[in-house]
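User: Structure with S-adenosyl-L-homocysteine, tokens only please.
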Amino acid sequence: MSKTLPVQKNDYIDVTFEDLTHDGAGVAKVDGYPIFVPKALPGEKAKIKVIKINKSYGIGRLIEIYERSHYRVDVASGDAHKYGGCQLQHMSYEGQLQFKENQVRQVLTRIGKLEDVKVHPILGMDNPWHYRNKAQVPVGEKDGKLIAGFFKPRSHEIVDTNESLIQIPEINKAVQAVKEICSELGIPAYNEEAHKGVLRHIMARYGKQTGELMVVIITRTADIPHKNKLVKEIIARLPKVKSIVHNVNPKRTNVILGEKTTVLWGNEVIYDYIGNVKFAISALSFYQVNPDQTKVLYDKALEYAGLTGEETVIDAYCGIGTISLFLAQKAKKVFGVEVVPEAIEDAKRNAELNGITNAEFAVGEAEVVIPKWYKEGNKADVLVVDPPRKGCDEALLKAIIDMKPKKVVYVSCNPATLSRDLRILEDGGYKTLEVQPVDMFPQTMHVEVIVKLVLKGTVE
Ligand code: SAH
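Assistant:
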């Protein structure tokens, strides 16, 4: 089979890169056969080694760059750069933003067949580093020493690192301090292969607006040796800590958190604000990881919803009610739907915390609950969706088309499924008016998009 392909495994060849894949690899073509090469940029000429070939594409490794892209930046050496999961860090931030914006435009045309839609310039960050408010760091042992950091790609080997370039400094400090304390106290690390030992992960969460820090110690065993000393030292070395939590995960699994959580010291939750809305964040709560850009995204959601105080809003896929509570400030009534019961508990608690009385939350699948509401005669003026990567279920899109809310605001973390769903909504009577990409995850290939649709024939 491979005889008919223009390249063979282990070939060294000179190529010119034309494009980037959605996961940030450079694309070069040899007689039409695409080869994907991580860390290569469009416009670059380079020598590569072909390391894998499949029928329809190959994978290569960069050997030498002859001509650099003007978007290429030198990446410092060190494990934080090498293993930190920043797939686009070799590209200037300006280049990253342009890549993401172009990707959105291309996919909207290719998959959504949306030719003349208005795509605004992407909203990026002033400082695209140290933005994440949550870390979950695996712990292991090497040469008898406790280590914690990143996994090597496609392996379970841990690289000991004290810094992540995209975490908020308080998070890095917290993880490092807890690692040092556990090491000093001789708390054994978990050994994945043998399923023995104690400490599996160190987790830290930080409320950027409040300065409140949560530390979560995740162990295999129900007990933590030297627990009291551990707590005392964490309090002494991390003055911002407001909550120390113990989570037990006794299973052989890649899932980080187990079911049993107890508070070792302080509060069960920390607080944070997005705009004026206050959120309680527990060890297990879902909460957006880039708080600054979340505000940017939700301000857009508010703008696109165009609320006057008279509207009924449905927020499908509402999570802990973040968008719902944001919109409730300007709407008559908001109904949130979410499949995870604990998230709905958080949503209700957050509504109460803010004295918001015009938001109601229901547990269930959006594609089941919303058609049911419609059948019962309930309608929304504005419908917001913020689905996971696979996009909206077709039954939900059909319910939207039947219900005919005047506006639909679609928040998406996957331009491909977004484009597929926009096509269905367009064919069902909606017009895509505005598309706003937002960079929620600088240095990575992820891009968030928010879209405003209106019923065709509606004056805007
Ligand atoms: N809007 C929220 C959460 C978005 S993440 C925020 O901005 O914080 C997507 C959410 O959809 C997750 O909370 C996930 O649990 C939920 N979800 C996944 N499938 C669902 C479905 N079929 N119906 C309702 N919610 C679903």
